[in-house]
C-alpha cells in the first residue's frame, strides 16, 4: 500500500495520538477511523489522496489481483473492465434499511429495524471483516467544494475497486480533507466492507463479496453502513446512500430537495436557454435524455447531470438545481453510437471502469446495443466464450460504465457553478407499455406533484428481483426516500410555498416506452425525444397546441415536430391517447397505492385524486 508519495507504507502504524504525525487534524474523523480500524482489524490503513499517481498504483494492484482487466490502451486509454460475482450485480432493495429511532419515520416504502438491534448485528458482521486487507479512508464531497455549505462524507472501504470508482464519481482526496479540517466540518461517516476477510495466507478472489448483504442508513446520526456487496449503488456510498437517502433527510430538515433526476440545458433556435430536470426510475432513460443528441434542427442540448439533482429555491424564489456527482455510472446496454453518441464519445476518451460488460478479442468492451451487429466472437461477462447465436446477452443487463463527467463534450459550463441553474420544467417519467401518454402537461403544481406521487414503471435489472412488473415509484425515488413517503410528498408541496409562483417550474409526465398494438414502440425515443422537449418549451412559451384530457394537457397530433420522421400526426395521437378503460384500471391501482401511505398522505393529493376521478366520470 502507498502513502501520499506513492511509497510503500505498509509498515506505517496507525496514529491514535492526533499528534503531528497524524494524517488529519480533524479529531472527529481521526477517532472514527481509529474506532473502525479497531473493529474491522485491517492489515493496514491508507488515507486516499486522490492523485493521478495513486490511482495508477491502485489500478496496477487491481490488475495484478485479477479484479480489473486492463483494456487496449489504443482504443480505451487508462480504462479497465471488472467482472463481479454473478450474485452481486445490482442494488439489493430487500436488504436496504432505514433504521430511524421510530419505525414510522422510515415509512412504508423502507425496510426498518430497530437501530440498536441493527447496530449490534452490524458490529458482529464488521468485527474483523477487513482482516488481511487494506482499509482505505476516502474523504469526499458531494457537490461543490466551494458551495456555501459543502456536503462532506468519508467512505471507509476495504475495496480498491470502490476507491477507483469513487474517484470518478466524486471529488475525493487531500483537497477535500483540508477543507473539512479548515471548517471542522460535519461529514457523513460511510463505512463499507465487502465482508470477505482473508485468513493468514489465504488467497483473495477477483471479486470478494459476501452472500449476506446489508445496506443500512441511520437517519439521526446521518451514518451509512454497507456490508457484503461491491456493486455500485450498494458500495459507492456517496451516490444513492448519501446523495439521495441521507441527503433527502438533510433536505427535509434544511428546506431543499435531493432527487433522482437528470438536468439538461436546452437552447432554442431563438438562442434562449432553458433548464429541465427529469426524474425517471433506474434504467428508464435519464442518462440517455441528459446526453440527448437532437434530431431536429436549431435546438441544442447540453448536459449538467444524469442521475442525481439537488434543488433549492433561490433568492428570487426560483428553483435552482445542481448535480452533486462528478461522474456517470451509466447503464451500458442500449448505449450506442446511434442511440447515445455523446456517451460513446465520453467513454472513448478513456479513464473509465466498465463492470460486467463483454470483452472483445482485441481488448475492448462490447454490450448489447453498442453497435447494430454483435462482434463474431466475445468473452461474455461470465468469462465464457460467446458468439451471436449464444442465446443469451454477452453483457449483463445492468452492466455499467463509470466515466468522468468532464469527458462529455456537451457538458454545460454551468455544471461548474456552485449556485446551479434555474429549472423551468420538471419531467416525471416511467416505463409503461400501456396507459401513460407520450407526454402530458400537469394543470398546475399540485397536479404535477400528484403525477409524481403516482408515477409508475416496469421494474428493471438495476435492482435485484423480477424484471417487468409495474410498480408505483413516486418521483422515481421509491428505493431512495430516506424517510416517510407521505412526509416526503408533503415536503414537495410545502417547499413550493417558498417559491415565486411565477417562476414555479411546469410539470410534465412522459413515457418513451408505450407500445402500439403490434408490439413496437409508439415513439422512436432517444434523439427524437428532442421533439417532445420542443413541445414542452413551446408550452412554457404558450405557443404550442394541446388537448385537454382528464389527466392534463396532451399535444395535438400536429403540435409535435415530425420533420424528417416517418410518423404522422395520427401516430402522435395514438401515442398520447388517454384510454378510459386503461385509466379505470390505473385509478384502481392508484387507489390501492394511496391506501398504503396511511395518515401522512397529504390531503391536497387525495383531493387531486378525487378530482381526477370526477373528470373521468364526467368525460
Ligand atoms: P440509472 O442509471 O439506473 O438510474 O438509469 P437511467 O435512468 O439513467 O437509464 P438509461 O438512460 O441508462 O436507460 C436505460 C435503458 O433505457 C437503456 O437500455 C436505454 O437503451 C433505454 N432507453 C433510454 N431512453 C430510451 C428511449 O427514449 N426509448 C427507448 N425505447 N428506450 C430508451
Ligand atoms: C440506479 O440504480 O438508479 C443507478 C445505478 O443509478 S446505482 O448507482 O447502482 O444505484
Ligand atoms: Mn439512478
Automatic annotation (TrEMBL):
Keywords (A to Z) from UniProt: Cytoplasm, Decarboxylase, Gluconeogenesis, GTP-binding, Lyase, Manganese, Metal-binding, Nucleotide-binding
Enzyme Commission number(s) of this protein: 4.1.1.32
Cell compartments where the protein resides: Cytoplasm
UniProt-listed InterPro entries: PEP_carboxykin_GTP_CS (IPR018091), PEP_carboxykinase_C (IPR013035), PEP_carboxykinase_GTP (IPR008209), PEP_carboxykinase_GTP_C (IPR035077), PEP_carboxykinase_GTP_N (IPR035078), PEP_carboxykinase_N (IPR008210)
Pathway this chain belongs to: Carbohydrate biosynthesis; gluconeogenesis
Cofactors named for this entry: Mn(2+)
Organism domain of life: Bacteria
Residues annotated as binding GTP: 283-288, 400, 431, 526-529
Record-annotated Phosphoenolpyruvate carboxykinase GTP-utilising N-terminal domain positions: 32-252
Any one GO molecular function term: phosphoenolpyruvate carboxykinase (GTP) activity
Reaction(s) catalysed (UniProt annotation): oxaloacetate + GTP = phosphoenolpyruvate + GDP + CO2
Binding site for substrate: 91, 231-233, 282, 398-400
Active-site residue list: 284
Cross-referenced HAMAP family: PEPCK_GTP
Listed NCBIfam families: PRK04210.1
Function description: Catalyzes the conversion of oxaloacetate (OAA) to phosphoenolpyruvate (PEP), the rate-limiting step in the metabolic pathway that produces glucose from lactate and other precursors derived from the citric acid cycle.
PANTHER family linked to this entry: PHOSPHOENOLPYRUVATE CARBOXYKINASE, PHOSPHOENOLPYRUVATE CARBOXYKINASE [GTP]-RELATED
Protein name: Phosphoenolpyruvate carboxykinase [GTP]
Amino acid at each position: 500500500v502507498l502513502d501520499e508519495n506513492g511509497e510503500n507504507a505498509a509498515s506505517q502504524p496507525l496514529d491514535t495520538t492526533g499528534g503531528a504525525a497524524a494524517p488529519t487534524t480533524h479529531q472527529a474523523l481521526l477517532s472514527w477511523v481509529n474506532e473502525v480500524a479497531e473493529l474491522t482489524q485491517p492489515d493496514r490503513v491508507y488515507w486516499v489522496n486522490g492523485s493521478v499517481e495513486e490511482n495508477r498504483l491502485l489500478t496496477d494492484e487491481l490488475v495484478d489481483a485479477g479484479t480489473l482487466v486492463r483494456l487496449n490502451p489504443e482504443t480505451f486509454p487508462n480504462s479497465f473492465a471488472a467482472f463481479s460475482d454473478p450474485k452481486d450485480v445490482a442494488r439489493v432493495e430487500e436488504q436496504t434499511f432505514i433504521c430511524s429511532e421510530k419505525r414510522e419515520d422510515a415509512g412504508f416504502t423502507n425496510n426498518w429495524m430497530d437501530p440498536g438491534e441493527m447496530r449490534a448485528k452490524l458490529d458482529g458482521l464488521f468485527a474483523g471483516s477487513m482482516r488481511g486487507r487494506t482499509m482505505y479512508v476516502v474523504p469526499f464531497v458531494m457537490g461543490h467544494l466551494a458551495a456555501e455549505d459543502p456536503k462532506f462524507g468519508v467512505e471507509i472501504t476495504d475495496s480498491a475497486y470502490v476507491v477507483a470508482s469513487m474517484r470518478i464519481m466524486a471529488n475525493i482526496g487531500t483537497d477535500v480533507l483540508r477543507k473539512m479540517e479548515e471548517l471542522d466540518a460535519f461529514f457523513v461517516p460511510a463505512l463499507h466492507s465487502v465482508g470477505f476477510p482473508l485468513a493468514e495466507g489465504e488467497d483473495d478472489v477477483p471479486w470478494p463479496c459476501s452472500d449476506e448483504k446489508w445496506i443500512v442508513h441511520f437517519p439521526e446520526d446521518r451514518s451509512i453502513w454497507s456490508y457484503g456487496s461491491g456493486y455500485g449503488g450498494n458500495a459507492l456510498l456517496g451516490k444513492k446512500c448519501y446523495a439521495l437517502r441521507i441527503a433527502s433527510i438533510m433536505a427535509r430538515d434544511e428546506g431543499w430537495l435531493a432527487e433522482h433526476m437528470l438536468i439538461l440545458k436546452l437552447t432554442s433556435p431563438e438562442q434562449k436557454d432553458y433548464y429541465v430536470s427529469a426524474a425517471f426510475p433506474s434504467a428508464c432513460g435519464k442518462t440517455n435524455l441528459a446526453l440527448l443528441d437532437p434530431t431536429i434542427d436549431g435546438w441544442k442540448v447540453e448536459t449538467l447531470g444524469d442521475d442525481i439533482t439537488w434543488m433549492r429555491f433561490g433568492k428570487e424564489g426560483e428553483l435552482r438545481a445542481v448535480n452533486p456527482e462528478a461522474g456517470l455510472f451509466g447503464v451500458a446496454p442500449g448505449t450506442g453510437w446511434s442511440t447515445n453518441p455523446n456517451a460513446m464519445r465520453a467513454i472513448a476518451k478513456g479513464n473509465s471502469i466498465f463492470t460486467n460488460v463483454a470483452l472483445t478479442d482485441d481488448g475492448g468492451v462490447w454490450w448489447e446495443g453498442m453497435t447494430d451487429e454483435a462482434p463474431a466472437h466475445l468473452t461474455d461477462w461470465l468469462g465464457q466464450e460467446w458468439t451471436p447465436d449464444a442465446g443469451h446477452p454477452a453483457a449483463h443487463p445492468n452492466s455499467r460504465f463509470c466515466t468522468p463527467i468532464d469527458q462529455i463534450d456537451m457538458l454545460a459550463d454551468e455544471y461548474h457553478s456552485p449556485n446551479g441553474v434555474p429549472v423551468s420544467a420538471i419531467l416525471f417519467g416511467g416505463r409503461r407499455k400501456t396507459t401513460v401518454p407520450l407526454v402530458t402537461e400537469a394543470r398546475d403544481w399540485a397536479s404535477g406533484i400528484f403525477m409524481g406521487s403516482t408515477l409508475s414503471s416496469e421494474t428493471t435489472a438495476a435492482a435485484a428481483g423480477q424484471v417487468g412488473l409495474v410498480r408505483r415509484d413516486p418521483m422515481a425515488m421509491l428505493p431512495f426516500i430516506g424517510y416517510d413517503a407521505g412526509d416526503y410528498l408533503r415536503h414537495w408541496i410545502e417547499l413550493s410555498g417558498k417559491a415565486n409562483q411565477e417562476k414555479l417550474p411546469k410539470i410534465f409526465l412522459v413515457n418513451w416506452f408505450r407500445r402500439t398494438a403490434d408490439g413496437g414502440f409508439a415513439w422512436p425515443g432517444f434523439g427524437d425525444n428532442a421533439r417532445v422537449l420542443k413541445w414542452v418549451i413551446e408550452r412554457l412559451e404558450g405557443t404550442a397546441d394541446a388537448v385537454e384530457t382528464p389527466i392534463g394537457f396532451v399535444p395535438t397530433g400536429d403540435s409535435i415536430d415530425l420533420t424528417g420522421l416517418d410518423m404522422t400526426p395520427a401516430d402522435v395521437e395514438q401515442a398520447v391517447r388517454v384510454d378510459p378503460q386503461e385509466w379505470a384500471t390505473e385509478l384502481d391501482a392508484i387507489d390501492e397505492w394511496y391506501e398504503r401511505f396511511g395518515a401522512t398522505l397529504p390531503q391536497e393529493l387525495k383531493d387531486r385524486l378525487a378530482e381526477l376521478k370526477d373528470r373521468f366520470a364526467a368525460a
